[in-house]
Specification:
Elements (H helix, E strand, L loop, with lengths): L11 H15 L3 E8 L3 E8 L3 E7 L4 E3 L12 H10 L4 E6 L5 E6 L2 E6 L5 E6 L4 E4 L3 E2 L4 E2 L19 H10 L5 H8 L3 H12 L12 H16 L5 E2 L4 E2 L12 E2 L3 H62 L1 H16 L4 H10 L3 H5 E5 L4 E6 L2 E6 L4 H36 L3 H7 L13 E4 L5 E4 L3 H11 L5 E5 L7 E3 L8 H13 L2 H4 L4 E8 L3 E2 L11 E2 L4 E7 L2 E7 L4 E6 L1 H7 L2 E11 H15 L5 H5 L3 H5 L6 E8 L1
Antiparallel strand pairs: 1-2, 2-3, 3-4, 5-6, 6-7, 7-8, 8-9, 10-11, 12-13, 12-14, 15-16, 16-17, 18-19, 19-21, 20-21, 20-22, 22-25, 23-24, 26-27, 26-28, 28-29
């Protein structure tokens, strides 16, 4: 039997089997790493004593253990950072499926991590009493709301077919008389299309039969199949249509691949589909790029033809002026003398039309408003400027030819580069990845100074008057919190609150950041007062203020005597080390090794070398090569006012 369905998600029955397998593999495991890709794709590395590491994959529609790891993302999203803060190093105590729904709960030392694998998908971190700490997405429905500081509520309960006796099942048939039996099983009882078909096939019942026509014997057989499913042993298989926890009767004419674990089957099927999708997208991208480049090449070819024509035409005009020098000279002198005697242009035109001289016959048009006469020079009409000499007119055409030649050379160089790009796009994707590493896409906040707080919130600071202006005007929302040191010449620092209450620890870190990037550093001060206000109270006030200056309205919250210091560290990733900087506690949380600096008199280059050496001393042998490859300027540019000294360092 052919199933006309692309399997892109897992059903409640799949999760019933999967959870049993996950419990056996992951309970008592320690969460070591968390990665987030795109919006709703997650990888969790879970180390289980005596078993080793497992990688759990989850997205909006499916979950399984995978062998197909992806490279670590360049920059973890804020929700991923938040999960890391709360869950890294914590032990998994229990895993369960909620009822017969596509909702998986993982209990982790004081937390419950809930995966809603139903549209639109969500990941929700709760405390042990189901109070929501943070969801991946804030979501609202008529019957419930998913947002921080509320109690988590499940979606409306669906019927669990494994809790129905025969009478319950008969009542279900009676309440849906016109519905096909396969539709009832697929949607009302949440088995999904494939398993709905399978149950009908095993029970020997026509899947398209309306529920009102199902006999008692047929209903009994269907109910019996459901009961057997409850105790069916796990025998994972992979078909072309998908991965399943047991062989299917509806696919009995196809030979499945048998594997040891259900996750292995799911991983093989879905990861292969993902790879095919990625490959198709890569091919499409290459094709679109080729088409775009070829369009540009076509435009360049048109431009080449245009400039070649202009060069040839201008050079020919210049040469004709010299070849017919006397004709041009006499024509120019005749018109000038006529004007000097007071003749009007209409009189001049009339006189020329009546003269039988070669010069008069050569004049084809007079555009007195433009100061131009058009002469026929050997069969080509050439524009001559009345205000210039014969030589000046010829020189003007020679200059036009030179200018066109210069443009033509530029076009040909551009064509050469385009041809090289066309050749590059024709390379195989795998060849290209070996030759060049994809460029990291720059985030908006990377144009400023920034860090992620120990609570996972983004904090951004201006670098100068211009970036202060852009930060406040373009990137600061009313519910963000703005910090500024109580001294002229300081950076504005903004906590991006995402509409949530900002923890005190993040506020303290932002105040420390504002103190470091102020004039207090260059003055060699030890402490400085810092204040904060909501973003809605930082305005221009209708006054024409200098760039980077704003009016602070209303009361301020003060952070007195903030110690002036800054930490600089490195975070080791898959194949590189990134430099991070910020307040001490935030850098301690978000780096592998760090040092702390304060105002001092060592110049930035000397201090950068010292910072790098300190980090190398503390680094593990396997991490040292990554730190060695970091350019000194990466440390230099983070040193406030270009000077300072180290006060302490740690890991």
């Amino acid at each position: 039997m052919e199933i006309n369905m692309e399997r892109e998600e897992m059903t409640s029955l799949d999760f019933r089997f999967l959870v049993q397998e996950l419990k056996g593999n992951l309970v008592n495991g320690i969460i070591r790493r968390i990665y987030q890709y795109e919006k709703k794709k997650f990888f969790f590395e879970i180390f289980v004593p005596t078993k080793g590491s497992f990688w759990l994959y989850a997205d909006a529609k499916k979950m399984f253990l995978t062998q197909k790891r992806k490279p670590a993302p360049q920059e973890p999203p804020s929700f991923c950072m938040f999960l890391r803060k709360h869950l890294l190093g914590k032990k998994i105590k229990y895993i369960k499926q909620y009822d017969f729904d596509r909702i998986i709960e993982i209990e982790i030392n004081g937390y419950i991590l809930i995966f809603e694998l139903i549209h639109p998908g969500n990941v929700i971190l709760c405390d042990s009493f189901y109070n929501i700490i943070m969801p991946l997405e804030i979501q609202r429905w008529r019957h419930r709301e998913i947002k921080p500081k509320t109690v988590y509520r499940y979606p409306p309960r669906i019927e669990n077919p494994f809790e129905m006796d025969l009478n319950d099942f008969l009542r279900k048939l009676k309440s849906n008389p016109d519905k096909k039996i396969v539709s009832l099983l697929s949607s009302n009882l949440s088995f999904g299309s494939i398993y709905g078909n399978e149950i009908c096939a095993v029970a020997g019942v026509n899947k398209d039969k309306p529920c009102k026509d199902i006999s008692l014997d047929e209903a009994s057989r269907i109910h019996k199949v459901i009961e057997v499913l409850k105790e069916t042993p796990l025998k994972p298989v992979v078909y072309a249509q998908g991965a399943f926890p047991f062989p299917l009767k509806i696919l009995e004419n196809e030979k499945p691949k048998q594997v040891q674990e259900f996750s292995q089957a799911l991983d093989e099927f879905f990861s292969e589909k993902e790879e095919e999708k990625t490959e198709q997208e890569a091919k499409k991208e290459v094709l679109e790029k080729e088409e775009k480049i070829e369009r540009i090449f076509g435009h360049q070819k048109e431009a080449e033809t245009k400039w070649e024509r202009i060069e040839k035409d201008s050079r020919d005009s210049a040469e004709r002026i010299y070849n017919y020098y006397e004709t041009v000279r006499v024509a120019l002198e005749g018109i000038r003398k006529a004007r000097e005697t007071g003749m009007s242009w209409s009189e001049i035109k009339n006189q020329i039309s009546q003269e039988p001289t070669p010069e008069a016959e050569a004049i084809k048009e007079i555009r007195e408003g433009d100061g131009i006469i058009v002469l026929d020079l050997g069969g080509k009409e050439v524009e001559i400027d009345i205000r210039k000499t014969v030589e000046e007119n010829a020189e003007k055409y020679y200059e036009d030819a030179k200018w066109a030649r210069k443009k033509l050379e530029g076009v040909k160089e551009a064509e050469k580069q385009i041809l090289e790009k066309i050749e590059e796009t024709k390379e195989k994707p795998e060849e290209k990845t070996e030759k060049e590493k994809p460029k990291k896409r720059k985030k908006w906040y990377e144009n400023f100074r920034w860090f992620f707080s120990s609570d996972g919130l983004l904090v951004v600071a201006g670098k100068n008057d211009e970036s202060n202006e852009i930060l406040i005007k373009k990137h600061t929302e009313d519910n963000d919190i703005v910090f500024h040191a109580d001294i002229p010449g300081a950076a504005f620092v903004v906590i991006k609150s995402q509409g949530l209450d900002v923890p005190d620890e993040t506020k303290k870190e932002a105040a420390e950041f504002a103190a470091a990037y102020s004039k207090a550093w260059s003055k060699g001060l030890g402490t400085i007062d810092v204040y904060s206000v909501p973003g809605s109270r930082v305005t221009k006030g209708g006054v024409n203020l200098p760039k980077g200056s704003f009016i602070i309205e209303g009361e301020r919250e003060w952070y007195r005597e903030q110690e002036i210091k800054l930490s600089i560290g490195v975070k080791i990733k898959e194949d590189e080390a990134d430099v991070v900087s910020g307040p001490v506690m935030a850098v301690r949380k978000n780096s592998d090794y760090f040092v702390t600096i304060k105002p001092g008199f060592k110049q930035s280059l000397e201090l950068a070398m010292e910072i790098k050496n300190k980090l190398l001393i503390k680094a593990k042998p396997e991490d040292k090569p990554f730190i060695e490859n970091i350019p000194l300027e990466e440390f230099q540019k983070r040193i406030p006012s270009g000077m300072g000294e180290i006060v302490e360092y740690g890991v």
